[in-house]
Amino acid sequence: MLDTATPLQRAAPARREQTQDHAIEIRGLSKVFGKTPEKIVPLLKQGVTKQEIMDVHKHVLGLNDINISMPAGAIQVIMGLSGSGKSTLIRHINRLIDPSVGEVLVAGVDVCKMSPKELREFRRHKTAMVFQQFGLLPHRTVLDNAVYGLQLQGVPRARQVDAAMHWLGRVGLSGFENHYPHQLSGGMQQRVGLARALVNDAPILLMDEAFSALDPLIRVDMQSILLELQKEIRKTIVFITHDLDEALRLGDRIAILRDGEVVQQGTGQEIVLSPADEYIMDFVRHVNRGKVVQLSAVVERQAIPPDVDGIELPCSTLLETAVSSLLASGKSMIVVRDPWGEALGCLSLPKVVAAMVGP
Ligand SMILES: Nc1ncnc2c1ncn2[C@@H]1O[C@H](COP(=O)(O)OP(=O)(O)OP(=O)(O)O)[C@@H](O)[C@H]1O
């Protein structure tokens, strides 16, 4: 029987219960920086441009009418070039920034309306951050960096150490507990950053350009570690990046920002196959479709000929994987099955390769 379940469906029930309430809803959120943002907000509805706000009103439009539903237990990527508003947006989620207008609902509760005590609890127990520059304390060992959050929470030392040892092991740092950050490479330091965030066991992980300071190969390694861990931890992860390949690799969903507005959001496949405008088209032009597009997007519903001699693959299979499987099998056709095992149609090798190349 083919395993056609999505990673979310495969997650352990207990973990799903823990994370299912931690969806994040950003609704009608705008942020204007300046002396009197409340005077600028009404102008946004009248269509005043970012440039006019800057030139005429001497304010900066950071974000304009952002609406994003971030599913619980999934990786939501926020992608955009420098100055598009990514950091401003992620900082609203733990209310390091207050919106000029709009709501940030976490588990249905508006973060912007929390009392100082509620906000403190929320930040401490519900969210953890991984920073671009790692944010490790240089005079603390790896272990003491990893326990830091639990120490603040007043958790007994033995439990702090247990949790830290577990997560340091999971990110491949067993044996490095007594090293200091300066004794580690950048990639290893960011593993500590990730372990420290996981030690807190918060359901929401906020990762602001977390892998952007790393060399390309190390960066891909870190992405693999995160994806592997996410199969088990099923956190609600908000991941900021300016890199499309990283966005496509990590994001269950991706929102692309430009000049403080969402230009397009959806799955990587949706964005690559149906770019919303020229701007997005330019972004996705050089994407390796084989790593993004699934058989489901290519197969046409048709009856399966009785004598077909092919391999069977689930419709969620990526084109690149499908080609490898086909070549390894020595056969010439793929029978594509839906998540319930029903045959949807057949695909030949040339058809799959043509879909990888694109129009
Ligand atoms: N405190 C602030 N005061 C005034 N303008 C600000 C402030 N913070 C951000 N901005 C402006 O808001 C816009 C969005 O900035 P933001 O830092 O969120 O973008 P970004 O996509 O994260 O960029 P980068 O990738 O360079 O960090 C920019 O025009 C920026 O100059």
From TrEMBL:
UniProt keyword Transport, yes or no: yes
Classification via PROSITE patterns: ABC_TRANSPORTER_1, ABC_TRANSPORTER_2
Bilayer topology: Peripheral membrane protein
SMART domains, per database record: AAA
The protein's Enzyme Commission number: 7.6.2.9
Domain of life the protein comes from: Bacteria
Annotated Gene Ontology cellular component terms: plasma membrane
Record GO terms (molecular function): ABC-type quaternary ammonium compound transporting activity; ATP binding; ATP hydrolysis activity
Cellular location(s): Cell inner membrane
Residues of the ABC transporter domain: 48-284
Record-level GO BP terms: amino acid transport; glycine betaine transport; response to osmotic stress
A family per Pfam: ABC_tran
Assigned protein family: Belongs to the ABC transporter superfamily.
Subunit structure: The complex is probably composed of two ATP-binding proteins, two transmembrane proteins and a solute-binding protein. The complex is probably composed of two ATP-binding proteins (TmoW), two transmembrane proteins (TmoV) and a solute-binding protein (TmoX).
PANTHER family: GLYCINE BETAINE/PROLINE BETAINE TRANSPORT SYSTEM ATP-BINDING PROTEIN PROV, GLYCINE BETAINE_PROLINE BETAINE TRANSPORT SYSTEM ATP-BINDING PROTEIN PROV
NCBIfam families: proV
Name of the protein: Quaternary amine transport ATP-binding protein
Taxonomic source organism: Aureimonas phyllosphaerae
